[in-house]
């Protein structure tokens, strides 16, 4: 069942297509009108070309009909046709753009030219001395005056009716027709269309590139804001820089800052409560321990002394828990950000902490020492930027756990070595170790992998938080031949 259909389920609003890039949407909506204009411009250009080329061609046909009509002169016995062969050759010289002509009188009765030219449509009313134009088809003859030979040709025809002979009103009519193939003008149409659209087509990729760069520049502040959010640590609740946000998303940034402030206040209240409670509990627990010690000195009853020792152990365990809670509050990311970070010589720093734990390790009959590689020249110059107090607590927790759980007679070795642009602090022991299934869980708060010892399950959680604040990581690995290896990986200065 879809969660959205369950009662009380939160409503989810989706703005626009899922996983759709805002830049891609802007590009589409900007380029789409350009493509429409490109298509509309092509259609308009083609129609204008047809119009003006047809006008020019019709004017040429009109001139040809009148020129041909002037070669036909009426005489007493009929018509005198003064049309030399040279003039005919000029009209028919171009096979791809031939002019076909015909003179008939009365209209329709062939006298001269190509008798395959179609007559004007019957619905056209003849107009004297005024040419008009129509489209038709004719069969290109192999020789002038023959019908039915050669391919069919689409032509544009100019027809001109002229009177001749007797006085106006009684004279017969003469029809002069000149036809020209439309193939040539169609070629002109295509050339005009291609010459117009090709430059426009070449501009489209250029315009696309300009729009792509422009949208990128326009969205740059938004991308910077996204990188600012993506590059943050999950525990960084500082407000976003509203100055880097575009005007259109500043209200969103303000809302996010208000949300972050609310979360920050809630976290601070929780941390203050833990710190205050831990401080308040330290005094009564210290009093309980001292009173227990006095009670054990004042009695000789073995049973009572055993019970008092259990009370003392519980008080010590409570004091340890309180100290861990105080350190957890101190390791809070926002508190840590206000503390000084200074360059630190890793090798010297680790040697000092190991030296502090040697007496305790000897009392537990554990061999604690540093690997000889820590004295190498390359390791002596390893520096990191760290808060010495917090990092000391992290390493102290690791050593404390190793001494507690490695067992009597075991060995603990601490090693410092470089690894590219990082430095590794490795604490290895040959104790029972931690099962692979529990290694991720032990970094959670109040989670322990064993019932032995008096731990409270906060040590490794504190180590993880402190190392994360220093830009590093901590992992648990198997030690050879057996045992546990804790690896703290920190960036080199």
Explain this structure.
This protein is an alpha+beta fold. It has three domains: 212 residues, no CATH class; 84 residues, Orthogonal Bundle (Helix Hairpins), CATH 1.10.287.130; 152 residues, Histidine kinase-like ATPase, C-terminal domain (Heat Shock Protein 90). It has ten helices and 14 strands. Strand 13 and strand 14 form a beta hairpin. 21% of the residues are buried.
Layout: helices, strands, pairs:
Layout: H1 22-70, E1 72-75, E2 78-81, H2 85-91, E3 99-104, E4 110-113, E5 132-139, E6 152-163, E7 173-181, H3 183-230, H4 250-298, H5 302-330, H6 333-338, E8 342-345, H7 346-363, E9 367-370, H8 377-380, E10 383-386, H9 388-406, E11 411-419, E12 422-429, H10 459-469, E13 473-478, E14 484-491
Parallel strand pairs: 9-11
Antiparallel strand pairs: 1-2, 3-4, 3-7, 5-6, 6-7, 8-10, 11-12, 12-14, 13-14
Helix pairs in contact: 1-3, 4-5, 7-9, 9-10
């Amino acid at each position: 069942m879809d969660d959205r259909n369950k009662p009380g389920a939160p409503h989810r609003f989706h703005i626009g297509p899922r996983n759709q890039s805002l830049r891609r949407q802007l590009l589409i909506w900007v380029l789409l009108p350009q493509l429409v204009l490109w298509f509309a411009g092509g259609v308009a250009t083609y129609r204008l070309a047809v119009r003006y080329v047809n006008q020019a061609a019709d004017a040429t046909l009109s001139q040809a009909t009148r020129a041909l009509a002037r070669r036909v002169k009426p005489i007493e016995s009929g018509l005198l046709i003064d049309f030399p062969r040279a003039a005919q050759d000029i009209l028919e010289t171009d096979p791809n753009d031939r002019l076909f002509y015909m003179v008939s009188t009365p209209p329709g009765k062939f006298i001269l030219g190509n008798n395959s030219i179609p007559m004007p449509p019957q619905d056209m009313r003849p107009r004297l001395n005024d040419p008009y134009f129509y489209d038709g088809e004719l069969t290109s003859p192999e020789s002038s005056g023959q019908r039915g030979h050669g391919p069919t040709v689409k032509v544009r025809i100019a027809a001109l009716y002229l009177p001749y002979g007797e006085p106006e009103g009684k004279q017969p009519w003469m029809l002069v027709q000149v036809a020209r193939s439309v193939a040539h003008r169609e070629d002109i149409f295509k050339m005009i269309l291609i010459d117009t659209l090709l430059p426009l087509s070449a501009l489209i990729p250029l315009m696309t590139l300009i729009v792509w760069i422009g949208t990128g520049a326009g969205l740059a502040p938004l991308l910077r804001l996204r990188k600012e959010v993506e590059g943050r640590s999950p525990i960084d609740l500082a407000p976003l820089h509203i100055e880097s946000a575009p005007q259109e998303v500043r209200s969103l940034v303000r809302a996010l800052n208000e949300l972050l402030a609310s979360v920050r206040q809630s976290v601070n209240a929780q941390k203050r409560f833990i710190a205050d409670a831990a401080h308040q509990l330290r005094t009564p627990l210290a009093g309980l321990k001292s009173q227990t010690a006095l009670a054990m000195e004042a009695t000789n009853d073995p049973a009572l002394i055993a019970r008092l020792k259990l009370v003392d152990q519980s008080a010590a365990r409570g004091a340890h828990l309180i100290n861990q809670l105080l350190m957890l509050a101190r390791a809070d990311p926002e508190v840590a950000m206000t503390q000084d970070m200074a360059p630190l010589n890793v090798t010297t720093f680790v040697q000092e902490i190991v030296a502090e734990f040697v007496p305790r390790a000897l009392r537990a009959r554990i061999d604690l020492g540093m690997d000889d590689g820590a004295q190498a020249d390359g390791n002596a110059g390893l520096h990191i930027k760290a808060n010495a107090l917090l990092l000391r607590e992290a390493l102290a927790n690791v050593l404390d756990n190793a001494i507690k759980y490695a067992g009597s007679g075991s060995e603990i070795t601490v090693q410092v070595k470089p690894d590219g642009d990082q430095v590794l602090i490795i604490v290895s022991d040959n104790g029972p170790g931690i099962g692979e299934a529990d290694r991720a869980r032990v970094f959670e708060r109040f989670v322990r992998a064993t019932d032995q010892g008096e731990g409270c399950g906060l040590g490794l959680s504190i180590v993880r938080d402190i190392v994360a604040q220093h830009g590093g990581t901590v992992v648990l690995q198997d030690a050879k031949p057996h045992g546990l290896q804790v690896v703290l990986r920190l960036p080199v200065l």
